[in-house]
């Protein structure tokens, strides 16, 4: 086949609708996996609702509640929301005992110091209890000091979406101590089974706290600066976490540098996703030990040679499995030539833009477009990463995936 026919064939493949293209049998289609997981979740939720509907029909608005044994009652209580549990707890001593024995479903707890530095009117502590992931099933309280008393404030929205302010006062008390008690109380209510935690209190006495190990924890956001406190909190966390963020409450650049002692903890080294707002003292040696598939941080210690080796590792199939994204910030502009030295580059130009307009549009929608290159994998040339250089930031994204149609392989580009 001559070059002109081969070029037309490749052009026809690139323009063909993605919906009509079959995928390489040796490759796992990420979209299909997402759809399968979503469908599985949907059917599980439907089965759960059907199960609860059957129970509700049997109970008949609790008319048959006393006929049920304790195990059956506890199965029902496990699926009740917080308000319903509170109502049931007041019915009898037996019901109160059962409710207390069933862990409350709490997805996440956040406790955060707020002040004028963080853009708030007064110094206070906000505590948010989140019952379900990505849902509005949550409430927020504010603890403030008023002379020698603690004032707890909250807002309740009526069925007509009219907000009403409420408050209560605890006399002769310290607002920080009351906030700590409240957090510990809710940790105990859910039997320490939360999946997400946001720590934003520097003075939280974690060394003496009765908070136990949090076995189900997946997402951690630390907004404190004391490294000893961070390490004490990490002792309460599993070593395998999905998402770890170390930041501050003001989102303003500080002189704080996270030390290798914190970075080298298993909670960070094993995390699937990492984000550091403050600078970190990360060496190239620790960089290559990270297990994160997505990470973003500011480290002046990392050299252009380290980033170059990171790219080379990916092209040779030595990177973390399922790696998707890496963003390196620095104080000074990086040397582009050193970072790309010895690496075969495909520069993004007008031809690339014309051939893949949807990908180009999506990329520029999410990220600032700088000097961009595509780098192919040596293991599979139809796999590739995008390098984006914008001043002090070097971004690496896995954007090219190997696919095939009618036995002919091609690269499909998309943002990770």
From TrEMBL:
Which stretches does the entry tag as region Disordered?
A: 1-30
Q: Which residues form the Sdz-33 F-box domain?
A: 269-319
Basic and acidic residues biased stretches: 1-21
Q: What is the protein named?
A: FBA_2 domain-containing protein
């Amino acid at each position: 086949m001559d070059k002109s026919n081969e070029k037309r064939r490749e052009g026809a493949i690139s323009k063909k609708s993605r919906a009509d293209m079959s995928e390489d049998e040796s490759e796992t289609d990420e979209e299909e996996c997402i759809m399968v997981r979503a469908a599985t979740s949907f059917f599980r939720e439907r089965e759960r609702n059907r199960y609860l509907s059957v129970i509700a029909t049997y109970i008949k608005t609790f008319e048959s509640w006393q006929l049920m044994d304790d195990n059956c009652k506890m199965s029902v209580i496990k699926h009740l929301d917080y308000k319903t549990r509170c109502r049931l707890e007041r019915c009898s001593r037996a019901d109160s005992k059962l409710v207390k024995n069933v862990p409350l479903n709490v997805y996440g707890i956040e406790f955060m110091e707020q002040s004028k530095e963080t853009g708030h009117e007064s110094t206070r502590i906000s505590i948010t209890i989140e019952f379900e992931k990505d849902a509005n099933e949550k409430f927020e309280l504010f603890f403030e000091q008023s002379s020698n008393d603690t004032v707890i404030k909250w807002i309740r929205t009526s069925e007509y979406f009219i907000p009403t302010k409420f408050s209560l006062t605890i006399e002769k008390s310290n607002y920080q101590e009351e906030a700590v008690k409240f957090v510990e109380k809710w940790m105990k209510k859910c039997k320490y089974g939360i999946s997400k935690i946001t720590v934003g209190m520097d003075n939280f006495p974690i060394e003496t706290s009765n908070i136990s190990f949090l076995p189900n924890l997946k997402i951690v956001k630390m907004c404190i600066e004391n490294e000893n406190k961070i390490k004490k909190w990490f002792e309460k966390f599993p070593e395998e976490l999905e998402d770890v963020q170390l930041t501050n409450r003001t989102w303003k650049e500080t002189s704080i540098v996270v030390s290798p002692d914190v970075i080298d903890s298993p909670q960070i080294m094993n995390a699937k996703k990492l984000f550091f707002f403050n600078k970190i003292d990360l060496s190239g040696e620790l960089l290559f030990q990270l297990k994160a598939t997505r990470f973003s941080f500011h480290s002046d210690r990392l050299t252009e040679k380290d980033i170059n080796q990171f790219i080379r590792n990916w092209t040779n199939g030595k990177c973390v499995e399922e790696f998707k994204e890496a963003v390196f910030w620095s104080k000074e502009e990086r040397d582009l030539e050193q970072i790309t030295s010895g690496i075969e580059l495909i520069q993004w130009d007008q031809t690339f833009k014309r051939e893949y307009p949807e990908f180009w549009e999506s990329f520029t929608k999410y990220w600032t477009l700088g000097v961009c290159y595509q780098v192919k994998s040596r293991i599979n040339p139809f796999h590739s990463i995008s390098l984006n250089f914008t001043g002090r930031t070097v971004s690496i994204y896995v954007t090219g995936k190997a696919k095939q149609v009618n036995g002919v392989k091609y690269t499909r580009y998309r943002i990770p």
